[in-house]
Amino acid sequence: MSGLVLKLGPKERVLINGAVIENGDRRSRLSIVTPNANILRLRDAIHPEEVNTPVRRVCYIAQLVLSGDADPAEAKLQLMRGIEQLSQVLTDSDSRKILNNATSEIQNGQYYQALKALRALLPREERLLSAAQVQ
């Protein structure tokens, strides 16, 4: 992940290559220069009991790669299948752009960037599910 800059708030935690790192009392910036480092901001982490929607499932798979709990090659297939399924439902142009971006990042092995893109779909999914419940 060459060139990734993490801006951390006070006491914020991040998982880097399996190690949990906690920031001190002040805001800070970390520049990650090691390529292909597995990084997950813990405030953004989806917990297993929260994996209850299609977008959350796909995000969780990417998150497992970043935490080192999933084999990237195996996860890549699951992610691509999940994105294909999402693309059949999320057909608007903005969602398509996000899904295409996530697909490109996965193909390049950039799981952090893929997760970041996929997380942009969470509010949209929530609105769609809320609207479906009202009807």
Describe the structure.
By secondary structure, the chain is an alpha+beta fold. The chain folds into 2 domains: 4-43, no CATH class; 46-134. Helices cover 51% and strands 16% of the residues. The protein is built from 5 helices and 5 strands, in the order βββββααααα. The chain has helices spanning 54-67, 72-89, 93-107, 111-119, 122-134, and strands spanning 4-8, 13-16, 19-22, 28-32, 39-41. The strands form 2 sheets. The chain has a 3-stranded antiparallel β-sheet with strand order 3-2-5. β2 and β3 (19-22) form a beta hairpin. α1 (54-67) packs antiparallel against α4 (111-119), α2 packs antiparallel against α3 (93-107) and α3 packs antiparallel against α4 (111-119). 21% of the residues are buried. The model has no long low-confidence stretch (mean pLDDT 91). Keywords: Bacterial flagellum biogenesis, Cell projection, Cilium, Flagellum, Repressor, RNA-binding. It holds the Pfam family FlbT. One of its GO terms (molecular function) is mRNA 5'-UTR binding. This is Flagellar protein FlbT.
